[in-house]
Amino acid sequence: MPYSNQQKRQHIMELQRYLHAISLMDRKIPTVIPDGIYGQETALTVRAFQSEYNLTETGTVDSATWNKIVAVYKGLFHMKPAPYPAFPSEKFVCESGATGQLVYIIQAMLYGMGQSYDNFPKIKVCGNFNEETTNAVMGFQKICALPQNGKVDCATWNMLVSCSCNGL
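RE: above sequence
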């Protein structure tokens, strides 16, 4: 059965998707946008991959290159999670009125505790540091013998993270 242009394009797209994912984790590999066309960008990315992984630099995909690309790609799924520095700094304080990603994370940790412990409030995760969040933070601070001000400073943050990971 002949190899159709559509099949060829699908295989190139698969290669480009793997390389794209690898490039997100390894800055030495240029990012290629999957489009199903084996052009100069794809050849450049393949050549950079080959260089990085000690393969013969040809810019074309032979079986050794393909096998290594697949192995590296699959290895991404078995990596340890990358730490995500969510709390801005030692001196930062997150308090009533704040919004955004950090508030979502704080609320998610408080929510998890509410799900695990009957005597802990069950709050909504909404990204707005509202009165419900302030009260939950104050309750958490009381349990942990921290100053009960309803604000998440570095000490409260570290205790939240510790308790979320290890339990109260």
